[in-house]
Amino acid sequence: MKLIIKENIKLATNVFDDMGIFWAEIADKNHTEHQIQFLKNNLNKKGLILDLACGTGRHLIPLLAEGYRLIGVDSSLKLLRIAKQRCPRIDVIRVDLRSLPFKKEVFEAIISMDTSVGYLPTETDDRKSMIELNRTLVKGGTFFVDVFNIKQLKHKYGKKGQIDRLNWFGIQVLLKICGKRVFRFLKLKEYPSFYLLQRRLINSDSKKLEDLWFIYTKNSEKVKKFNHKVRLYESEELEGMLSKSEFKVKCILGGYEHQEFSTESTRLILITTK
What we know:
The protein is α/β, with parallel strands linked by helices. It is 35% helix and 28% strand.
């Protein structure tokens, strides 16, 4: 199957289209390996699997190599092209999650890893996507939802003091004055082709995780700025949304090794059936 683009879908500008080449490097390898092992422990190879928001194929490609049958979907054309370059034989489609181009009850399982829920414009759109996913899942099929635990993130990033805000303001002033030299002075996260300076916080009003990224590319020696936002849900809210979309929640986990969920868990994983 070729890379399929539905010409009639209207998608908003996707932040991952702009930062796709960087996102491919940002994904943590060890974190991804834990996710893949979790999926292998919970999936079977009999039916077709939908990889929701598959991005660059970091789950899709390894699972395909293990003998699983998958189709990947994403709203970012740039990420899908990267995935296709990595593995030309994969099946990937650019879609609007609120209107999927699939018949009823075609997938034995659907996987949504690494906080893929919450990027649509409104909560109503998220609910519409859940109804669409339920439509495409066979009876008795499994839907895996893996997102950030908002309670843990609120504790970690939600209470920023004045000093933190002033420090961040000072960094931005330095960027304007000194440009790329700031990246030599600050302790930053380094990736193969760039350095990353990141501010992360939780917006208590919108319940969104808000990231502001400054990326310094090594080859061009330019600084690029990106805003990344995703809506987060409490476990009760997400469970309610899934239930209203006719999913039955089998269990709620706090990690990829089937840890019990708590407010301190870094992940919120719901395993549901239709």
